[in-house]
């Protein structure tokens, strides 16, 4: 019997989450949490078209580049206060939840609204100045290989819903490495599809964009138990990440 077995259930859960995040920082992930799915045609076509049109009217909301990646991000609260609200409400509907359940066999919910990672819009583009070596900027447009931290007691499921990926590559710039093996995702048929993966266990990255390329995705965060940790250090870490990404 372990000493932690004597703890109340909630504290045992907190301890497990703390140990999980500590292991993550050391590059240790579970081989039992390497699952990913691709769900195609997520939005009904009419809603998808409405969403694309509404987002084209949003350039003034685009935030500046973050410190960890070039490109822009718009947080969910800003999105839901914009004209994109109506089509995006589909992602909070029972219809969408059932679709996810049918495709994955898991009951997942969006994380609470207070978390800006619940829903956000990410925009990636090439950097002509870097491509032409006008600047010594070396920061990549995407993110290098990494796993995410988790502040929820349940599993962390990261979703990348591609709205548009205009590149010269055959494969998506998003790459996953379940069980340490790189999965290339065909770019054809990627629009309006959701790549859902265990983001705190499956290593992932976004390859660099080159000049003229553009990629626009919705990032979703779901969990089978979206109860936020009591751990103040983990919450502080998440706030720091949010500031880098969204300036919040
Ligand atoms: Fe990530």
Strand content: 15-25%
Question: From the 3D coordinates, which CATH architecture would you assign?
Answer: Sandwich
The average pLDDT value, as a whole number, equals 87
Helical coverage, percent range:
25-40%
The count of domains is: 1
Tell the overall outline.
globular
CATH topology: Jelly Rolls
Q: Regarding CATH, which class?
A: Mainly Beta
Which hetero compounds are present in the coordinates?
fe (ii) ion
Structural classification:
alpha+beta
Distance between the termini: 44 Å
What's the CATH superfamily, by name?
Answer: q2cbj1_9rhob like domain
Helix/strand order = HEHEHHHEEHEEEEEEH
- Largest sheet composition: 7 strands, antiparallel
Question: What's the tally of helices?
Answer: 7
**Regions with pLDDT < 50 over 5+ consecutive residues?**
none
Number of strands: 10
The value of Rg in angstroms is 18 Å
Write up what this structure looks like.
With 248 residues, this protein is α+β, with helices and mostly antiparallel strands. The chain has one domain: Jelly Rolls (Sandwich). It is 27% helix and 23% strand. It contains 7 helices and 10 strands. Strands 1, 2, 3, 4, 5, 8 and 10 form a 7-stranded antiparallel sheet that branches. Strands 7-6-9 form a 3-stranded antiparallel sheet, with no helix packed on it. A hairpin with a 5-residue loop joins β6 and β7. It is globular, with a radius of gyration of 18 Å. Bound molecules: fe (ii) ion. Fe (ii) ion (FE2) binds next to loops.
């Amino acid at each position: 019997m372990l000493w932690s077995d004597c703890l109340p259930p909630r504290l045992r859960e907190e301890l497990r989450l703390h140990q999980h995040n500590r292991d993550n920082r050391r590059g240790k992930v579970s081989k039992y949490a390497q699952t990913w799915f691709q769900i195609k045609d997520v939005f009904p076509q009419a809603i998808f078209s409405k969403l694309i049109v509404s987002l084209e009217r949003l350039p003034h909301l685009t935030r500046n580049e973050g410190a960890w990646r070039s490109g822009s991000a718009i947080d969910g609260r800003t999105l839901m206060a914009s004209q994109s609200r109506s089509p995006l409400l589909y992602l909070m509907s029972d219809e969408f939840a059932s679709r996810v359940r049918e495709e994955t066999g898991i009951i997942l919910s969006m994380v609470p609204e207070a978390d800006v990672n619940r829903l956000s819009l990410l925009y990636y583009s090439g950097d002509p100045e870097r491509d032409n070596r006008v600047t010594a900027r070396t920061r990549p447009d995407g993110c290098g290989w990494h796993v995410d931290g988790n502040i929820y007691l349940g599993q962390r499921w990261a979703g990348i819903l591609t709205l548009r990926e205009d590149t010269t590559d055959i494969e998506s710039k998003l790459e996953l490495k379940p069980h340490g093996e790189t999965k290339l995702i065909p770019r054809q048929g990627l629009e309006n599809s959701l790549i859902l993966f265990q983001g705190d266990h499956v290593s992932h990255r976004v390859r660099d964009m080159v000049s003229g390329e553009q990629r626009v995705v919705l990032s979703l965060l779901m969990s089978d138990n979206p109860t936020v940790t009591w751990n103040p250090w983990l919450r502080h870490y998440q706030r720091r990440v949010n500031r880098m990404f969204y300036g919040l």
